[in-house]
Specification:
Layout lengths: L2 E5 L2 E7 L5 E6 L1 E4 L6 E2 L12 E2 L12 E5 L3 H12 L3 E5 L14 H9 L4 E3 L3 E5 L3 E6 L2 E6 L2 E4 L3 E2 L2 H6 L26 E3 L20 H8 L3 E3 L3 H26 L3 H11 L3 H19 L7 H11 L3
């Protein structure tokens, strides 16, 4: 997304795709729901632009048997440190505060604290990164400067909304420490008529307040806008994915019910030809009886036609 210009009823949105091709769109209303993961909070230290430094964590496998420094003390840092440790990395955690953030998920925090207590993950609190090199990092700790052997750095220092992009649209902000955008809490409309906010972008730098708790506000925006709005978000795709998986699971359950309720006599007859021994036949008969009992438990969810076929097939030995 490059620019959003215009006014209520006549907005013009300019965007570029992955190949760099420019696309222009027209809309009566615009909702800004861009999230905040595009812009990471930088460390602003020498060496941060080296290829061994990452602000986004994907998977642990490339870091097996490596020395990895994780910077941060909130959810992203905690989960990254634990995942790396469980997949064979030697993890060191650096946090500028004196303890793990109280906002870390309640099932993650004790796990990380126990790993630190057992010295499985090394942690330095009240410490910061001063320099990053190819094979070491320099920390500032309460005991003084500390140089550590290191292969990779995971800077899980948080993210922020695209403030410059929002200001270019003319959105106003409150003069507070969280740089909160100004909007109407009932309609979610900004100072620009026809321009609305949705999601964590509403919280400014205080994104944890909005990530889960305030998501339902989007329904109010939809009621206000009606048709003709451009959603700068992937929420519709996510909803479609959930609906697809729900339908897929329902069909799989129905197929399982139908498969279990097939005539057991046909299966037994076929297997008797393969295993003509008396012992095997006895075992097969016992297994067939169990299969029939399991199939009877599905009679409540099968159609009546399948019930009649099942009774006819089971009425003959």
């Amino acid at each position: 997304m490059k620019t959003v210009t215009g006014q209520d009823g006549n907005f013009r949105v300019t965007a570029t795709d992955r190949s760099g091709k420019i696309h222009d769109y027209c809309a009566k209303k615009v909702i800004v729901s861009t999230g905040y993961y595009d812009l990471a909070n930088r460390l602003n230290v020498p060496g941060e632009d080296l290829p061994i430094v990452f602000h986004y964590y994907k998977e642990p496998y490339p870091y097996y048997d490596s020395d990895v420094l994780v910077v941060g003390g909130k959810n992203s840092a905690a989960e990254t440190a634990l995942d790396l440790w469980r997949h064979g990395a030697r993890v060191t955690l650096v946090h500028r505060d004196d303890k793990i953030s109280p906002g870390v998920k309640y099932w993650v925090r004790p796990d990380l604290e126990n790993r630190i207590k057992n010295k499985e993950i090394t942690a330095y609190f009240n410490s910061t990164v001063k320099e990053i090199a190819e094979n070491y990092v320099l920390l500032s700790t309460p005991q003084g400067p500390l140089e550590l052997k290191n292969d990779f750095v995971m800077a899980m220092t948080g993210y922020q909304p695209p403030f410059d992009f929002m200001k270019s649209m003319g959105i106003q902000f409150h003069d507070d420490e969280f740089h909160t955008p100004a909007y109407n809490e009932q309609t979610m409309g900004t100072n620009i008529s026809g321009l609305y906010l949705a999601g964590v972008v509403c919280g400014g730098l205080k994104t944890n307040k909005w990530f889960i708790v305030k998501g339902g506000k989007t329904r109010a925006i939809v009621k206000v806008l009606g048709r003709g709005a451009i959603f700068l978000t992937s929420s519709l795709f996510t909803l479609a994915s959930w609906m697809f998986w729900a339908l897929f699971n329902l069909l799989a359950f129905c197929a399982a019910c139908f498969t279990v309720s097939l005539p057991c006599r046909m299966v037994a007859s076929m297997l008797r030809r393969i295993l003509p021994f008396s012992t095997s036949t006895q075992c097969l008969a016992a297994g067939t009886n169990q299969l029939r009992a399991a199939a009877r438990s599905f009679t409540l969810v099968r159609a009546p036609l399948y019930q009649r076929r099942w009774r006819r097939s089971c009425s003959h030995p």
